[in-house]
Amino acid sequence: MDHTSHIDENTVVIQMKDIVKKFGDFTANDHINLTVHKGEVHAILGENGAGKSTLMNVLYGLYKPTSGQIFIDGQEVHLNGPRHAIELGVGMVHQHFMLIQPFTVTDNIILGVEPTRGIVVDEKTARKRVIELSERYGMKVDPDAKIQDISVGMQQRVEILKVLYRGAKTLILDEPTASLTPQEIDELMEIIRNLTGDGKSVILITHKLKEIKACSDYCTIIRQGKYIDTVKVSDVSESQLASMMVGRNVSFTVDKPDKEPGKEVLEVKDLRAKDYRGAEILKGLDLHVRAGEIVGLAGVDGNGQTELVEILTGLKKAESGTITMEGKDVFNRTPKELFDAGISCIPADRQKNGLILDFAVEDNLILQHYNEEPYAKHDILQRGVIRRHATELEERFDIRPRHTEAHPAGTLSGGNQQKVIIAREVTNDKELLIAFNPTRGLDVGAIEFVHKYLVEQRNKGRAVLLVSFELDEIIDLSDRIDVIFDGKIQGEIAGRDADEKELGFMMAGGAKQ
Amino acid sequence: MKKKSIGRRILEGNFLYTVIAIVIGFLIGAVFLEIAHISPAVAYGKLASSIFGKPKYWFYTLTYAEPIILTGLSVAFSFRTGIFNIGAEGQYVVGALTATVLGIMLDVPAAIHIPICLLGAAAAGFLWSYIVGLMKVKRGIHEVISFIMFNWLAFYLSNYVVNLKVIHKEGGGEASKDILPSASILFPQSVRTATGCTAFNWGIVLAIGLAILLWVIIERTTLGYRLKAVGFNRSAAKAAGINADRSVLQALGISGAMAGLGGAVQILGMGGRLAQYATQEGFGFEGITVALIGASSPIGCIISGIFYGAMKYGGSKLTMVKAPAEIVDIIMGCVIIVIGISQVFKRLFLGLASKKRAAA
User: Fold this and answer.
1) Strand pairing category for A218-223 and A8-23
2) pLDDT at B185 over 70
3) Do B236 and A367 make contact, defined as CB atoms within 8 angstroms?
4) DSSP character at residue A149
5) Which of A85, A201, A339, B279 could form a disulfide with A90 if both were Cys (CB 3.0 to 4.6 A apart)?
6) By the 8 A CB rule, do B46 and B323 touch?
7) Is the ipTM beyond the 0.95 threshold?
């Protein structure tokens, strides 16, 4: 992706000076500076919980800063709410969309600022203006479609149009690519270029380095609430950005010694299953994973990955086929039987299937072993043992903040919640570890951490099945890559020969070349 | 982590907000009394003197608290395991009925008779709730609907049985025969004379003992761990290999058994016989109030149950000053509503506290 800059270095539109925001004892923003020019794409980079969103909420008028100054178009302002920020030309697109599902695109865009004729909404004018705006910035939307019927990418465009319709000159986009497909991400980049070409400025909150390199002019890095630096993106590499963000060097390449795989651990043959609507979703899938190897299952979401993992962990029943673990039949067993047969899993949805958020961290760490020694004796929980176990894992797996054994897991950040699951599943040390999108929503530091443990399991001679929608992750980690398409394995490529283009072709249903 | 100051702990806990809710409940009750041209000072004075005036009133308060501590435990246990047992009323009724029938029909020594009556009542409550659980687990029928229907089934079943010839007391109005003395859990005559409370019985000991037992189950046992896990997050519990259906059934069964025992102590202790119901007795529904005020903690239920027992006992004497006993229901209702919004106070107070500290 080439990046055409539209920046006008002489016109400053936003300036934030020495912004401090405290919540009680906690300092979320500690003297942060930010300068944004006309036509600039300015990325704000930081780990989960670094204070990016707090800073933007200050700029958007949702929080009042404890101290510091904000200038918009050279004038110092004291924002008293989002409405005020919008009046001054600052608009925000939140990560979680705020749209009314049964309303049309047009209705959502004009909501609150409807053009009226007398006391009725002037639908015709509204529709015309929406079409004008969408054509001007190359954002194709159907003004009459209902939100519930359009894709996530489309919904995001509606959000952007909503902000533009209100006359925003600076757009804050909070993690805009988090839920988009690769193609939608490319389209978003195009939209951002169109916006800056028209003299708008864009502030991009993200922790994805690739996107920053692809479309930003400047990048401000925040770490643990502190201002680290503002850099010209063209002058720095991705790994420099990453180490500034994390505060140490981050390795992108996974250190993985060559290893001959051992005996067969998991064998799946001719597996067939139906989805919740009763349509066949797995159509004769074959798969095998051996000890000491990572098998990557690549594919676009919805080709049967979810069902496969559910069947392998006992949450769903298959129609037919065979599944064996180390030669033993484990077809259609309960979750407990499969776990005992040697299958552990890092689930895709950690808050739904991985953790009990209301439970203390220490209790989450014994979820599969709560009734076994030494955690329980004669059905009485051994609180001291459970606490020591948690303290030990907290240290070993760097779960932060420390000493949160007794706090509900829901109070941890997403990355640390994932560490709790990794700690539990890795210490289960089962013959097979299934990892389903194990790094979704995590920042670079946490991703590196998760990858390290997956490779460690492989090196210890365990079998690892990595199911992921992130192609980079599959290519980096896998010894073998199976591509799943339409409920079957489309083909297999050795990890070291993997080529993104060919994999992408196979993921779309093409035959191996 | 820093050690928290006592002040901070009070602000973060539930107790302070419960007390605030109770105070506000009384204030709103006063408004209603004022509207009805009854002096709140006189009414509340009577209420207080009827509870604290003489030691014997304290023992009556405890006696009044017995069944609602138990139904409170029933509801609290269901809350902690992710279900809403709105059927404690029905389980109470089948418990009371079973204790009555066994208390009348069996003629065995007290050492056997009392345990049989208690166990029978617990089993009846367990079963009454378990059936609802089965319908939920096997057929997906929402438990709130079945519980409410089972409350009425219990109501009519009880009235039917009370009027059976073997149970009904000849010429005794609309009630059953008296239970045999061997089934009575009243304290010995000497204790009752000394305390001045003729109905004082072992039920209060049972209620407090069971509250402690439930606390241990919830906080310290693998059973409690499993039931809570399923209650908080069924999918994660299932994925971890926990049999969720079985856990729901067990939780409902235990909850039902508590309410059934509530019925038993009322009959074997205070009542001595079972009257035909004109309307639903209400002990089960009062259990919801007790559980809410007690923050769903078994130990909290002892305290809130005694509080509610005091209000009921004191309220029953309000007619002496021409104030309606229903004022107690108004107060308790307001307390519940205010507890429902107590998070608002919590946030307000915590916010003020941190502002003060930031300024200092």
Assistant:
1) unpaired
2) yes
3) yes
4) G
5) A85
6) yes
7) no
pLDDT grade for A506, boundaries at 50, 70 and 90: confident
Long-range Cβ contact pairs of A86-90 (< 8 A, separation 24 or more)? A86/A163, A86/A166, A86/A167, A86/A168, A89/A13, A89/A167, A89/A168, A89/A169, A89/A170, A90/A14, A90/A59, A90/A60, A90/A61, A90/A168, A90/A169, A90/A170, A90/A172
Identify residues of A whose CB sits under 8 angstroms from chain B CBs.
22, 24-25, 313-315, 334-336, 339, 345, 347, 352-359, 363, 367-368, 370-371, 376, 379-381, 383, 403-404
Cα–Cα distance between B330 and B322 in angstroms, integer? 16
End-to-end Cα, chain A, rounded Å: 26
Q: Do the Cβ atoms of B276 and B174 come closer than 8 Å? A: yes
**B3 reaches A (C-beta below 8 A):** no
pLDDT attached to residue A115 = 84
Considering only alpha carbons, which residue of chain B is nearest residue A425? Answer: B240
DSSP A151-212: -HHHHHHHHHHHHHHTT-SEEEEESTTTT--HHHHHHHHHHHHHHHHTT-EEEEEE--HHHH
H/E stretch holding A20 reads strand A8-23
pLDDT tens per residue, range A65-120:
999 999 999 999 999 889 999 999 999 998 778 888 889 999 999 988 888 888 88
Is A262-342+431-513 in the same CATH topology as A8-246? Answer: yes
A89: left (phi over 0), alpha (psi -120 to 50) or beta: left
By C-alpha distance, the chain B residue nearest A370 is: B222
Chain A residues near residue B357 by CB distance under 8 angstroms: 24-25
DSSP β-ladder status, A320-325 and A264-274: antiparallel
What residue segments make up the domains of chain A, in order of their start?
8-246, 262-342+431-513, 355-429
For tokens 């025992």, what's the residue? B261
Among residues A328, A300, A275, A325, the alpha carbon closest in space to that of A433 is found at A325
Confirm or reject contact between B5 and chain A (CB < 8 A). no
- Residues A8-246: name the CATH superfamily: P-loop containing nucleotide triphosphate hydrolases (3.40.50.300)
CA distance A44 to A58: 14
Cα B358 from chain centroid? 43
**pLDDT tens digits along A281-310:** 999 999 999 999 999 999 887 889 999 999
- Tell how strand A75-77 and strand A67-72 pair up: antiparallel
The 10s digit of each residue's pLDDT in B243-269 is 999 999 999 999 999 999 999 999 999
What gap in Å lies between CA B253 and CA A82, rounded to an integer?
52
- Please give the share of chain A, as a percent, with pLDDT higher than 70: 98
Which among B1, B221, B240 has the least Cβ separation from residue A379? B221
> Model confidence over B20-61: pLDDT tens digits?
888 988 899 899 889 988 888 988 999 899 999 999 999 999
Third-level CATH fold of A262-342+431-513: Rossmann fold (3.40.50)
Please tell me the predicted confidence (pLDDT) of residue B78.
Answer: 95
CB A44 within 8 A of CB A52: yes
* Domain formed by B65-308, architecture: Orthogonal Bundle (1.10)
Strand partners, A205: A44, A174
